[in-house]
Amino acid sequence: MLLREMSRIECDDLLSRLGYGRLACARDKQPYIVPIYFVFEPGCLYGFSTMGQKIEWMRLNSLVCVEADEVRSHHEWSSVVVQGRYEEFTDNPEYSKQRQHAQSLLEQKRLLWWQTAFAAAQTRGRFDRDITIFYCIHIDEISGRRVSSDPVEHR
Ligand SMILES: Cc1cc2nc3c(=O)[nH]c(=O)nc-3n(C[C@H](O)[C@H](O)[C@H](O)COP(=O)(O)OP(=O)(O)OC[C@H]3O[C@@H](n4cnc5c(N)ncnc54)[C@H](O)[C@@H]3O)c2cc1C
Question: How far is the centre of ligand 1, averaged over its atoms, from the C-alpha of 52 (Å)?
């Protein structure tokens, strides 16, 4: 088994192809992680959500981590870790361009891009559960690891 570091281009390519991963945030000393869809653009991951725990926590602490991976087999996988900052595109004129941009990218990438976030809202039963949130994770640091079969081992 050969493990190597992925280049920045390889990391970007994986994030762009996959479009989903795990978003980790933290409040006080407690981590919280959930799977999310996103759209990659150089330097940024765009997402959509309704109001819930992860949004509340990221508002309090914008430092987050996103992990995405592609596992073909025990001997063939790739994994990318992003350290970044949450920015919310609030529903006011100041952010209207960013909201439109995020929505248009999400529409291009995935049919029914809004559905999972609304499904999550149904379980909450809160007054603010239908508030829609577009956001961006600014990528500060990125690293990737890829494993492939060792030809000798393979034989
Ligand atoms: C492949 C995939 C893609 C997804 N993409 C999106 C997306 O783009 N946008 C989006 O808003 N949501 C997405 N989800 C759903 C997401 O994982 C969360 O379940 C959802 O966003 C609610 O998170 P919240 O923090 O608002 O939780 P809340 O609704 O506030 O609920 C908090 C409570 O529910 C539990 N909980 C929440 N989510 C999960 C979970 N996934 N698994 C187990 N327990 C959970 C927490 O532990 C906590 O106790 C996706 C899920 C999957 C599997």
Answer: 8
